[in-house]
Write a structure and sequence with these properties.
By secondary structure, the protein is of the alpha/beta class. Helices cover 52% and strands 16% of the residues.
Length: 161
């Protein structure tokens, strides 16, 4: 039960690490690789095949600008793919959002928010997808959600006092 995080360039590393931190918290193994849909498509395709053979069950694709990475991954597998639009470039990620979310019918990419919030949610979503077949992970996800709720309650109480 693994997650493969792929990013189009090293400039997306902070986003990949943000997704990875959530997976670390939930003890979900993952890898991070730089694989461009445009510059190294053959390496990307080889990685997808190898990752599946090694037990990967969810892919997270992080890319900005043209952002075809998650879609390219989805074209090669029927496993879940989560797209994270990078927040760089002249349009601050809006172009990446549209490129990621506008997939042709039959080749879905679950797309999260632009930037760091999206990367964090991609980590959560990947864990939630994997938890449908793993009761231990489902409990960890539930407990983490409860911890977040309690932290917010505490912040509110401190604000009120």
């Amino acid at each position: 039960m693994k997650v493969s995080i792929v990013m189009g360039s090293k400039s997306d590393l902070d986003l990949a690490k943000a997704a990875g931190e959530i997976l670390d918290t939930l003890d979900v193994p993952y890898t991070i690789n730089i694989l461009s849909a445009h510059r190294t498509p053959e390496l990307l395709h080889a990685h997808i095949d190898e990752a599946i053979a090694n037990g990967v069950r969810v892919f997270i694709g992080i890319a900005g600008l043209a952002a075809h990475l998650a879609g390219n991954v989805a074209s090669k597998t029927t496993l879940p793919v989560i797209g994270v639009p990078g927040d760089g470039g002249p349009l601050n990620g809006f172009d990446a959002l549209l490129s990621t979310v506008q997939m042709p019918k039959g080749v879905p990419v679950a797309t999260v928010a632009i930037g760091k919030a999206g990367a964090i949610n991609a980590g959560y979503l990947a864990a939630q997808m994997l938890s449908t077949g793993n009761e231990e992970l489902a409990e960890k996800v539930k407990n983490l959600r409860e911890e977040q709720k309690e932290a917010l309650k505490k912040e509110n109480e401190e604000l009120q006092s």
